[in-house]
Amino acid sequence: MDPESDVTDDGRALVRRYYDALDEHDYGALEDLLSPAFSQRRPDRTFEDRETFVAFMREKRPNPDTSHDLASVIVGDDRVAVRGRVTDDGTTLFEFADFFELEDGQIGRLETYSR
From first to last of its 115 residues, what are the pLDDT tens digits of the chain? Predict the structure, then answer.
């Protein structure tokens, strides 16, 4: 078994679980995937910790009934890059690029760009 392949598979699976948790409104699972020091920077706001991010997704998300359609996932060491689109009932709302930094099996940092 190739250890590098295991890291790639683990990173890909971790990020897939992140999008699944968002799409399925599984905020307990989402919290488990994020490190306590998690931060996210995106064009419209910045989240400095896991609790604030999860609370926003649970209570203040502008379009809660969306799905993430992933077009590509690129994994390298402790980083994962994803390109995709957010859809609502099959209609594309916007395209995004997410850049994850992984720490000890959790997501430590996320930068999001959208158009």
Answer: 444 445 567 999 999 999 999 999 999 999 999 999 999 999 999 999 999 999 999 999 888 889 999 999 999 989 999 999 999 999 999 999 999 999 999 999 999 999 9
Q: What is the pTM of this model?
A: 0.90
* Domain 3-114: top CATH class: alpha beta
The letter for the amino acid at 79 is: R
Closest CA to 100 of 108, 90, 91: 108
Every domain of the chain and the residues it spans: 3-114
Residues 6 or more apart from 28 whose CB is under 8 A from it? none
Other C-beta atoms within 10 Å of 6: how many? Answer: 10
The helix (run of H) or strand (run of E) holding residue 83 is: strand 79-88
